[in-house]
Fold this protein.
Amino acid sequence: MQTKATTSEPASQMLSLLNACLTTQALHVAARLGIADELKAGPRGIAELSAALDAQPDALDRLMRMLAGIGVFSAGEGGTYQLTPLGETLQTDGPKSVRDWALYIGAAAPWSAWGHLYESVKTGTPGFVLAHGMPTYDFLEAHPELAASFNRWMSKQSDQQNAAIVDAYDFSKFQVVADIGGGQGSTLAAVLARYPSLRGILFDKPSVVAGSAPLDASGVRVRCDVVGGDMLEAVPGDADLYIIKRVLMICSDAEAARVLRNCAAHMRSGRKVLVVEMVMPPVGEPGPATTFDILMLLANKGGRIRTEAEFRALFAEAGLKLDRVIPTRSPNVLLEGTPA
Ligand SMILES: C[S@@+](CC[C@H](N)C(=O)[O-])C[C@H]1O[C@@H](n2cnc3c(N)ncnc32)[C@H](O)[C@@H]1O
C-alpha cells in the first residue's frame, strides 16, 4: 500500500498541475460573469443566479461546483452558493480585488499567446508575437477593451503594493519625482499623498496617461504634470528622483539600458533613480518571480525578470551605479542608483 501511495502521488500532483489551465479559465469565466458581485448581497440558488447572469443553469451549477471544490465559493443553506474570502477577490471593487487580472489572463487573445509557449521556448520569440504578430503593448494599443482591464489591473496591483514601497523608502529629500512608465499614476499618487510638499511627473504612453484617474482620486493632480511620450526616446528632465516601476521587466536589455540612460542624461549630483522590480531568486527558491519571467517571455521581446547582478550590469551600461538594494514587504525590491 505504502509503495502504491508514493508512486501515485507525483502522478496525481502532476495531473493537478496539468489541469490548472481549466482552473484559470473557470476563474476567468466567474469573473466575466460577475458571479462574485452577484453573491455580494448573500447566498443565491442556481435558478436565481443563472437568471441574473444569463447563464445556462446546469452549466453554471457545474462551474460553481468546481470552484466550490477549490474554496472560491461554499455551499449555503438549501442548495445555495455563497462567497468565501477567496471568492471575494473576484468582486469588481474592494482593495483585494484581482478581478481585472482574471479578466485579462483568460481572455481569448492572451490565452492564445500562452498557447505558443512551446515555440517561444524553441525560438525565444514571444507567444504574443507568434499569436498576434505584435508584442503585448502594441496589441493593447489596438484593443482598448482588453487594455482597459489590463490597465485597471496595473493600477489595482500597484494599489495593493504601494504602501510597502512608500514605507520602505524615504522620499522626503526630493522635490520632484517622475514615474517613468508610471501607468495611470497609482504609485505616484501614493508617494505624493504621503509627502505633501513633493511634486510629481507621470510619464507613460499617451493612450495610458489619458486615463490617469488615480491622481484625481487621491487629490494630488494639482501637484502633478502628466506627460505622454516614449521612454525609449526621451523622458522629462525636471525630476530629482526617477521611479521606474515594473517597466524594465517588459524591456530587452538594450531597451532597459536605453530607458536608464534617458533618465541618467538628466541626473546631476544628488539625483537618483529608483527601479522597483521583482528580482530573480536563486534556482529552486519559491516565489512569483519565475512565473512572471515566463509571462515576460511570452509577452514582449527580451522582457525578463533579472537577477541583482544583471541589474548591476544594466545600471553600469547606462552610466549609473547600483548603490542600494532595499527589500519591501511586497514581491518588489527597490534598486537605488546614482550617476557612476
Ligand atoms: C508593467 S506596466 C507597469 C506600470 C506601472 N509602473 C506599475 O507598476 O503599475 C509597464 C508600463 O510601461 C508602459 N510603457 C511601455 N512601453 C512604453 C514606452 N515606450 N514609453 C512609455 N511607457 C511605456 C506601459 O504603458 C505600462 O504602463
